[in-house]
Amino acid sequence: MKKAKFVIIISIIAVILGMTFFQLYLIPKFSDDNLENVTNDTDAITQDFDNMLIYKTKYMGNNSNIININNNLPLSNIKKSFSIHPETFAVEINYDVKASSIEQKKFEQAIVYNATVNFALVGNLESLNLNFNDITYTISRSSLENWYGVNLSSFENIDKLKKRVQSKLSNKTYLDKFMSEVVQK
């Protein structure tokens, strides 16, 4: 009988130690690794566009692709909701924050990059509305294609996107011109 109690006590201690190790070490390590992979790739200047190509679709009717695109872009850390209007080929992203509360340069870089990626990856998207608590920005496919002088589907590889978009995002004059010529408030 003593031997059975001893085995049970040792088993309970082993389970408790195993659960403690799992809870205190393995779960946080796994969560931190996943968080690192997601959040390190949401800077407009450095994001690897090739990783976004898995969400490319000809038609905006695939709601999960649109949501996944925008959950992997700059501003993805902001609470938001989506309204998808397939009859007008429009997407609205409703951010639960004031635009004025975001650092201006990073905000403008995100607007340029996010709009470009959305239109490059969603073939029939015609209008993108970015609604913040204090302002709404509207970007159309035609204004964006006029800005770049190309069909946005040509941004199907990282080299073109880096050359035509990401390499210019540090230039304040470029950002100001984009915001005044392409974005409607």
Describe the fold and architecture:
The longest helix is centred in the N-terminal third of the chain and has 38 residues, at 2-39. The protein has a 4-stranded mixed beta sheet. It contains 6 helices and 4 strands, in the order ααββαββααα. With 185 residues, the protein is α+β, with helices and mostly antiparallel strands. The chain is elongated and about 85 Å long. The protein has 2 domains: 1-40; 49-181, no CATH class.
How many strands?
4
Radius of gyration: 23 Å
The structure class reads: alpha+beta
Summarize the helix and strand pattern as letters.
HHEEHEEHHH
pLDDT averaged residue by residue: 86
Strand order of the largest sheet: 1-2-3-4
Biggest β-sheet description: 4 strands, mixed
- Beta-strand portion reads 5-15%
Summarize the structure.
The chain is an alpha+beta fold and 185 residues long. The protein has helices at residues 2-39, 63-70, 104-121, 141-148, 158-164, 172-181, and strands at residues 80-85, 90-95, 127-131, 136-140.
Tags for this model:
alpha+beta, elongated, 6 helices, 185 residues
Topology readout:
Blueprint: H1 2-39, H2 63-70, E1 80-85, E2 90-95, H3 104-121, E3 127-131, E4 136-140, H4 141-148, H5 158-164, H6 172-181
Helix pairs in contact: 3-6
